[in-house]
Design a protein that fits this description.
Number of strands: 10
Number of domains: 2
Largest sheet: 10 strands, mixed
Protein name: TAXI family TRAP transporter solute-binding subunit
Helix content: 25-40%
CATH topology of the largest domain: D-Maltodextrin-Binding Protein, domain 2
InterPro entries: TRAP_TAXI
Distance between the termini: 46 Å
Structural class: alpha/beta
CATH class of the largest domain: Alpha Beta
Keywords: Signal
Strand content: 15-25%
CATH superfamily of the largest domain: Periplasmic binding protein-like II
Order of helices and strands: HEHEHEHEEHEHEHEHEEHHH
């Protein structure tokens, strides 16, 4: 199974590289002879290659290229070590007056704008939203015979999760503390990756694990095929209150049968990923990027099934101001932005 999963990841990474249409040459921004104010290579910073944000961003870049709406512009997907690196590079592009985009979480965008993103000092109101691209669901898993029956039972337990600061870990802590009164200091956080979480559940070195991912999550599927597990549910009233306080978070109902051994519908917390840019990025460019996203939903879902982008979802998880180019498109198609 691990070999199959590895092969799948390799396939997705190769697909993303192909879709990105990346070139090794460089170009300068400037007039391209088509009336546009911008041309050349425009980076789109994302999490690691092979992840949904990378694949979706690469798909957007390829569709944008194929549309020929701005033939002098090439959108290239660049994988970063994390949101701090990607957002810092976006801010650098702002200071240079050069266009760029980033695809991370709505939480990260809100924190950067408000001056709350760790390792990036100061407020950054120059960062502007473009639109939603997908949701990531937090799967909290335990062994099927575990005495842990609810989220409240996680107090005092060993929990494998991504390092502090990761959106998945932040979301997990928000649910535990605000919903169940369990603070991060009330459990032992073991910062490990997905492979180690899968192994830890099987060998008992951790009591629970947090596995974020788009539906269906291949890591959860792999674990459920290797070892009997349960996925912990979060009560709906807790999830609704969470979304009221943290609008860049959300929740989903995962239907029974999505994973081996899951015989009931299960409510789970989720977080939203969005594309954002800075206010100096050309309005025409942002307008056409949003237009590309909105008018090619079916093609983007073929690139990655989590890219369920529509009029109903494009504003999800965004409570920061939009770029004027995005607002222009939304106004034209009757999407009301309330912020």
């Amino acid at each position: 199974m691990k070999k199959k999963l590895y092969s799948l990841c390799m396939f997705l990474s190769i697909l993303a590289l192909i879709l990105a249409g990346c070139g090794s040459g460089k170009a300068e921004e400037g007039a391209d002879g088509t009336g546009s104010k911008v041309s050349g290579i425009v980076p789109m910073y994302t999490p690691g290659a092979g992840g949904p944000n990378y694949i979706i961003s690469a798909g957007i870049g390829q569709i944008f290229k194929n549309s020929n709406v701005m033939p002098g512009v090439v959108l290239t997907t660049e994988a970063m070590s994390g949101v701090v690196e990607g957002t810092n590079l976006l801010i650098d592009r702002y200071n240079q007056g050069k266009p760029a985009f980033a695809a991370f979480t709505g939480e990260a965008l809100a924190q950067a704008v408000q001056g709350e993103l760790e390792q990036i000092p100061g407020e950054h109101p120059e960062l502007k939203a473009v639109g939603w691209i997908n949701s990531t669901v937090n799967h909290v898993v335990v062994a099927k015979d575990s005495p842990i029956k609810s989220m409240a039972d996680l107090k005092g337990k060993r929990i494998g999760a991504l390092p502090p600061g990761a959106t998945a870990t932040n979301l997990f802590n928000v649910v535990l503390e605000e919903g169940y009164g369990v603070k991060s200091s009330d459990y032992k956080h073991i910062p490990i990756g997905y492979a180690e979480i899968i192994e830890g559940i099987q060998n008992g070195s951790i009591d629970a694990g947090v596995l974020p991912g788009s539906l269906p999550n291949p890591n959860v599927t792999e674990l459920a095929q290797l070892y009997p597990i349960r996925i912990l549910e979060v009560e709906e009233d807790i999830l609704k209150k969470m979304v009221e306080r943290h609008p860049y978070f959300s929740y989903v109902n995962v239907e029974s049968g999505m994973y081996p051994g899951q015989d009931e519908d299960t409510l789970m917390a989720a977080f939203e990923s969005v594309i954002y840019t800075h206010e100096k990025t050309d309005e025409e460019l942002v307008y056409n990027v949003v237009k590309t996203i909105m008018e090619n939903g079916e093609e983007l879902r073929k690139v990655h099934p989590s890219a369920n982008i529509s009029k109903e979802t494009i504003l999800n998880g965004i409570k920061t101001p939009f770029h004027s180019g995005a607002e222009k498109y939304f106004q034209e198609v009757g999407i009301e932005v309330n912020q």
